[in-house]
Amino acid sequence: MAEAQNIPVGSTTAGSIAVAAESTVATRMSAPPSFDVADFPVPHGREEEWRFTPLERLRGLHDGTAAATDGGLKVAVEAPEGVTVETVGRDDARLGRTGAPVDRVAAQAYSAFTQASVVTVPKETVLTEPIRIAVHGEGGTAYGHQVIELGAFAEALVVIDHTGDAVLAANVEYVLGDGAKLTVVSVQDWDDTSVHVAQHNALVGRDASFKSVVVTFGGDVVRLHPRVTYAGTGGEAELFGLYLTDAGQHQEHRLLVDHNVPHCKSNVVYKGALQGDDAHAVWIGDVLIEAKAEGTDTYEMNRNLVLTDGARVDSVPNLEIETGEIVGAGHASATGRFDDEQLFYLMARGIPEKDARRLVVRGFFAELVQQIGVPDIEERLIAKIEEELEAAVA
């Protein structure tokens, strides 16, 4: 597997291809969390949480000018027997339990949606087939809300597949009962003209396990904000991410793991590859260990491969620790080009340079693809990686 070249935190590579920075304080928002969009000022790009985002390309999602259109987005849910799928109104008590929106777009989405989808897996139900949620854009603007809830000791795998052309702002909630196990695979395979901004909140119950796999390929602008909090001791969270950023695309992943109860674990691994002029990837990894969260064990890592000139990475790992009584805490960020030694090793064994470069990048992503656990999705993603790399190394 290829290892990205280590770049000291806070440095810039030649030609400003990549940037890595660090703060010891978790990212602070310009306004406290709220369900009311009026509590958030219209961002101007100078705010900490917006300084990397091209606001002019959000198509009005950030300033209230983006009006929802009829029929612009279709959502279909395929669920195994025993799973309940409901469409509910805004007053349903199950909405908003995982936390309030933390920025204006998420608040706009919460204020603007008319109906929400609630998928419930009853307690002690162990699913052998995945729940599949297909979100397909048909050229319109939409605001969405999705809740996925697992009862105590239930186990499920959920695949959320985003395709088509859309301008979408959404909130997604994952509620895990005590001892539950949930794996979520969120695939962003949008058309190149799409804009997708979403906040994902996970509330992890006592001794529950949550695994998130975020895969981002398409879209003009994709900005995702996964967040994890714990409802009881013994909870575990794994957040994995894979992104391929092409010329002109902006892909931004902003994560927060809030260790707010004792004796919980988290592990974050995101990897990206970039190619083409003005390809821009942003990764913000925030981990907060509160004073009461003794016995915490956490680690986060972001690695990036820059395949061509003209691409830019901003990688910002943040770790705030308020108690010394922890098992472990750490973070890492690395960004670089191909490892010439890896290429030389493969080419010395008769592998053409083009194929060698593809093998290096495919190996770079292999461990994350294997985390998905759904053969047809894994095969599709491998094929997509091959397609993207064909253009990258041609």
Structure overview:
Helix 2 packs across helix 3. The two termini are 21 Å apart. The longest helix is centred in the C-terminal third of the chain and has 19 residues, at 375-393. It contains four helices and 17 strands. The protein has one domain (15-336). It has a 17-stranded mixed sheet that branches. The radius of gyration is 20 Å and the shape is globular. The protein has helices at 104-112, 340-347, 353-369, 375-393, and strands spanning 18-20, 73-78, 84-88, 116-121, 131-150, 155-176, 181-188, 195-204, 209-216, 221-230, 236-245, 250-259, 265-274, 280-289, 297-306, 312-321, 328-336. The protein is mainly β and 394 residues long.
Summarize the structure.
By secondary structure, the chain is mainly β. The chain is 13% helix and 42% strand.
- Which of globular, elongated, flat, extended, rod-shaped describes the shape? globular
Provide the number of structural domains: 1
Strand content: 35-45%
- Integer-rounded radius of gyration: 20 Å
Distance from first to last alpha carbon: 21 Å
Helix vs. strand class: mainly beta
Helix content: 10-25%
Q: What is the string of SSEs from the N terminus onward?
A: EEEHEEEEEEEEEEEEEEHHH
Biggest beta sheet summary: 17 strands, mixed
Low-confidence stretches: 1-27
Please report the number of helical segments: 4
**Overall number of strands:** 17
- The multimeric state of the shown protein is single chain
The pLDDT mean sits at 88
